[in-house]
Amino acid sequence: MGSVLCEHCTGHCCRYLALPIDRPTGKRDFDDMRWYLAHENVLIFVEDGDWYIQFTTPCRHLGADNRCAIYDERPAICREYSTSGCEYQSGEYDYDHLFTEPEQLAVFAKEFLRRKRARARRRRERQRPAARSTAPRRTVVPLRIPTGVAI
């Protein structure tokens, strides 16, 4: 009989929770995220373009043997979890971006916002009307008729 994956596991999936957050669009969003990262056991990651905040905190029902102490009564989210994506089995996790310190995010934000401004500038330039012809314009000079001259 083969071994059950969970017999070797350290309960990694039960030691944090990650929630989706809105993708940052401006300086204020990044500033709020820096505040999140100022707290212990909090990180932000990007996976497949989606942003998440993660709180590293073990489930209160995780037993000393790394097994669920309330397995038969566990919440639906735990029941729906599949070991096909198990972090123990898959090894190192591949994030698009991982931020564990406010300073890391500040560096990323500076470059992100610089690129965003450059894209907006290029978009505005493309939307400007085409330049006018460089051919000389005909100037119309009003005809001045001296006073007292009969036409």
List the helices and strands and how they pair.
Elements: E1 16-21, H1 27-37, E2 42-47, E3 50-56, H2 76-80, H3 87-90, E4 97-99, H4 102-127
Antiparallel strand pairs: 1-3, 2-3, 2-4
Helix pairs in contact: 1-4
Write out key terms for the chains shown.
4-stranded antiparallel sheet; alpha+beta; 151 residues
Biggest β-sheet: strands ordered side by side in the sheet? 1-3-2-4
Low-confidence stretches: none
Number of domain modules: 1
Fraction of residues in H or I helices: 25-40%
Coarse shape: rod-shaped
Structural class: alpha+beta
Give the biggest beta sheet: 4 strands, antiparallel
State mean pLDDT (0 to 100 scale). Answer: 85
Q: Proportion of β residues?
A: 5-15%
Q: What are the secondary-structure elements, in order, as H or E?
A: EHEEHHEH
> First CA to last CA: what distance?
119 Å
Please describe what this structure looks like.
The protein is α+β, with helices and mostly antiparallel strands. The chain has one domain. The chain contains 4 helices and 4 strands. Helix 1 (27-37) packs antiparallel against helix 4. The mean pLDDT is 85.
TL;DR?
With 151 residues, this protein is of the alpha+beta class. The chain has helices at residues 27-37, 76-80, 87-90, 102-127, and strands at residues 16-21, 42-47, 50-56, 97-99.
